[in-house]
Amino acid sequence: MDTKKGKQFKTLLKVLKFIYGNYTVLAVSRDFLFLFSTAAEIYGISVLGKFIDATTKILLEWNSFDFKSFLTSDSFKYLFLIFILWAVTHICNQIRGYLYVVIYEKTWSTTQSMIIGKVANSNLQDVEKKDFQDKVAFAPAYSIERIIDVYDNFSVLISNTVRLISAFVLITQSVGVSALLLALFVLPEAFFIHGERRDIKEFRDNSIGKLRFLAYVQDLALTISNFLELRVNNIFSFLKRRYDEEYDEYLNKYFIGQYSFFKSRAGLGVFSQFLKYIYVVYVLAISVLKKYSFGQFKALFDYVDVAFNSTSKITDSVSIIIINLEYIDEFFDLIEYEGFGDRYQGKIKLGKNTPLLEFKNLNFAYPDDPSVTVLKNISMKVEPGEKIAILGSDGSGKSTLVKILTGLYGVVDGGYFLDGNSTRELARGELKKKIAVVLQEFIDYHFSLKENIVISGQRKNVDNALYANVSKIAQVDRFKKSVGLDDASLLGKTFASGKELSPGYWQRLAISRMLYRNRQLFIMDEPFTYIDDVSAERILDGILKFLGEERSLIYITRSIRMLKKFDRIYYLHKGSIVESGSWEELIKKKGKLYKEFLLQDESIE
Fold first, then answer.
1. What is the pLDDT of residue 341?
2. In contact, 479 and 212? CB cutoff 8 Å
3. Coiled coil where (predicted)?
4. Of all residues in the chain, what percent are helix, strand and coil, respectively (each to 5)?
């Protein structure tokens, strides 16, 4: 077995394991019903032939219709049996249809949850990779639907194999091994159609970048929070034009492939049916020679039709399965994707107390641009309970440092240590268990006000005392009253009843969210961008009191304001720490920070 076929077989096993492993009772029950209805169908063909012969006898021999006599006749017996078999088949098919809907929806739910879980457990440096992003975009659009499709076609394959074998055995009793010709009649259509499906698959693979762009433009245009700028500046016109141009280009090429597919299917389908009916003439000749009754010929005709259609469905299902397995590979490749965090992790677990945090000779360059060193020889230490500030202008490396501090990027040059343990030696998730962060680019969650804060908690039960405390510290309780909101009020404009907030209010919620997480090490990245100076100082004072002496704070800012409140300040300039010390020490030194202080026009106290 070559590598490609071997991979396809493994992927098929993964699909079957996924479906039958997660939904065993549903899938097995559906297959049993499939086989049961198939048996009823095959037997029903024979019964129909007998009904025709018995009814023909009535038509030829009876001069008048006697209902009582009819109830005791073979014609009624077979007619009643046909009804029972139809009812059984119909009920089985309806139950199978229901089970398919359940499996379909459960598969979507499970796979989407798996994708979210995979992204949630990945590092930013993995998530940002084009290969990873392509898989995340491709899997929901193409892979998940085809997992269900492969399972369904596998069931069709098994059922129609049973139908084919049953029909073939019955046909060969009359016409011998010539029944094998039916399979040959189907092969030309199956071969060409499979090639057309492969061409469509290749087109979709090559179009993934365009589809991602279309999804981005659509999301941009339909996000309610973007409406003001898009509407007032007439950006909607540009977005609509670009969307129409790109989508029309995609559709034109897509329709060419679809036209070729259906044209081939129409022509080859007619050709294979023509060959089948030539074979039916041969069957008719055999029936005449063997003096079969009309009912026997009708049953034989139906068995030929079953054999032909089953062979067609088998080859079609095999083609669909093979093509779809290539789509599905993207889903399993994503779930099994090994990123930095998968390859570099240890078994060490941290204690319950606030850890000593330390960088030693840290150098960092983004994986997609390794020639540019963004952080250079960074060495810094944050003692348990210490409150430090990192000051830097735009482009100094502050945002990159936040990503490293939070574990979103792995360290490969230099060291990042917690309590003397390299983060690469820590068990998976140990770093993130210790930290709570508020980012400069925070998220506006369009949930209830209370959910916006407690969403960062790890428990389902809300700590109401903690919630009230952090709401007070970040002044959420104040704006809640002034705007007329309560804990259950829906925020944002995604939903009709939602209330939009000012950026400053959203930022207060983000700060509350960080505090509610209630960890040992807090990281604040430009946390007061939208908050006035007086409120910002009061909030920071409340945060420092909330943390106490045992928990640590790393405060990252471009502003000199409020730096006096910190135990130590690191001045970050062009990716390097050029100064460090207390406020008083750095002012007396009259170095970089002092000059920045003068530029920001504050007075020395």
1. 62
2. no
3. none
4. 65, 10, 25
